[in-house]
Amino acid sequence: MSRVPAAAVPALRARVLLSSLIVLLAFCVTACGGGAAVSSGTPTATPVPTVALDAQLAQRTVYAATIGETVSSSGAIVALNAQTGTMKWRYATGGMYGTPVAADGSIYAAPQSDEVIALDASSGAKRWTFTRPDGDRHTGFDGYVAVTNATIYVACDAGSVYALNATDGAQRWHVKPGGVGDHIYAPPAVANGLVYVSSAGVSNTLYALDTATGAVRWKASAPAGFDGRPIATTDMVYVGANDRNLYALDAKTGAVRWRFLAGDVVWSRPAVGNAVVYIGARDQYVYAVSVVDGKLLWKTQTMGTAAVPPIPTGAALTLVGDILYVGAQGGAVYALKAADGTQIWRHDVGAAVDNAPAVVGGAVFVTTEPGAVYALRASDGALGWTATTSDGMIEASPVVGP
User: Fold this and answer.
1) Fold of the CATH domain 262-354
2) What is the 3-state composition of the chain as percent helix, strand, coil, each rounded to the nearest 5?
3) Are 368 and 394 in contact (CB under 8 A)?
4) Pick from 214, 213, 197: which is nearest to 205 by CA?
5) How far apart are the first and last CA of the chain?
6) pTM
7) Is 214 left (phi over 0), alpha (psi -120 to 50) or beta?
8) What is the residue extent of each domain of the chain?
9) What are the tens digits of pLDDT across the range 91-124?
10) Whole-number Å distance between alpha carbons of 371 and 33
């Protein structure tokens, strides 16, 4: 089954708008510079810091992308000081579900405007724009970006994949590996000279494309397709499918090495380390399975009573050393021991966390669906700061860069 059937998109957008209106009333948010392409200096951090975060974070920036669809905004990328949450700049995008990428002094994104954009990371000034010719902001979501070796790979909801020059946005190649009715709801993974792309709808296939040409090198199918975010190592590709299985595929051939059946679909990106694959599933469990044979090593359930989001992911995680940092649909952020899932700390944020945390400089950064960004101390989960935006809901992970 597809993540969001085309017929359901208008209803989804209506629910998003309603939720956003409620958020505006409940949070009494301070506007971040309505309508202007770039603004700076406006504080958006709620003045309730409880601990001081590492001073070196003052030189870093947290980037958050919003969906928009509010009465006052159509979505934006906002840049916040990583130590304090003060806003540095804001760029109006038209809204986006995908997570931006910070690389080489730029922020790359593919919003619902059918564009791929490159922004100056320090100022938010636009460097270049590329228009996706087969995009349509009224039929799905937007685009999903990966950057490597000065090339931007963009998978879009229309089922196409683009390779662009990161310097100027010039197109290197463009392919539509599937057929009419296929969609892509996940960023590609790039490794081994290949671009691994999830898709579902009709073909229900994961594709391995040549990085230089876009030619299909191999493909693998699942009964209901792949809407999960792939992750690739030198040997394997791990990806969640809509049949609730996590697939381990040979990175060079696409042969299925093993499958692990979770309690629900796995849309968030797996993490790999310690000879273990860690996944968060829509049933709100975190699973640890062996990279060798996919056997379950442990699982633990995240908890909470936050409202179920329109597109629930359940749990999403980031592995740093021997600790898993987990954002949970129930409205909490967890630090778990990677060895056995034992809880180290938990911090309640009161709203669904739809994507994986970013962990940098001794801090854990998360975004919540109603449109808030939290900075927590990594050692104990204590609150450093929280900031809210007037630009609508957030489905994307935060990104930390210079």
Assistant:
1) Thrombin, subunit H (2.40.10)
2) 5, 40, 50
3) yes
4) 197
5) 39
6) 0.88
7) left
8) 262-354
9) 999 899 999 999 999 999 999 888 999 999 999 9
10) 15
